[in-house]
Amino acid sequence: MLCSCFRVTIARTSVIFHLQGFSGPPLQNIDTRSALSVIKRILKTPMALFKITTRARKLTNGILIEPGMSVEVATVSAVNPITANGGQAVADAFMRVYGIDLKKAGALNSAYLETIKIR
């Protein structure tokens, strides 16, 4: 699950980091040694892994959510990913796996989603 938390783009002369939950612009134009240092720091950071599962059926704005749809979300902190950062990590995971927008469906809250901490 670490790969879903950050993405590294290596160009000819620069390395660009895209960190999940990082509100600023991507870290750009750093040398290879610095890039490896950042990657090692990220890999050593303890990650919390959550399983988010839909509780009930909901049909809103043409979006159908069925009970039992689930995704796994890795976060740097142990805070519930539904409430952290506006639930963006959870919304992104459901968009990536199922192609549904939980925000548009009005289901990005604890009433429709169950959170289980795996580790």
Tell me what the structure shows.
By secondary structure, the chain is α+β, with helices and mostly antiparallel strands. It folds into two domains: 2-44, no CATH class; 48-117, no CATH class. It has three helices and eight strands; from the N terminus they run βββαββββααβ. It has helices at 32-44, 88-98, 102-105; strands at 6-10, 15-19, 27-30, 48-54, 58-60, 63-65, 70-75, 113-117. It has a three-stranded antiparallel β-sheet. A hairpin with a 2-residue loop joins β5 (58-60) and β6 (63-65). The chain is elongated and about 50 Å long.
Question: What secondary-structure arrangement, pairings included, does this model have?
Answer:
Elements: E1 6-10, E2 15-19, E3 27-30, H1 32-44, E4 48-54, E5 58-60, E6 63-65, E7 70-75, H2 88-98, H3 102-105, E8 113-117
Antiparallel strand pairs: 1-2, 2-3, 4-7, 4-8, 5-6
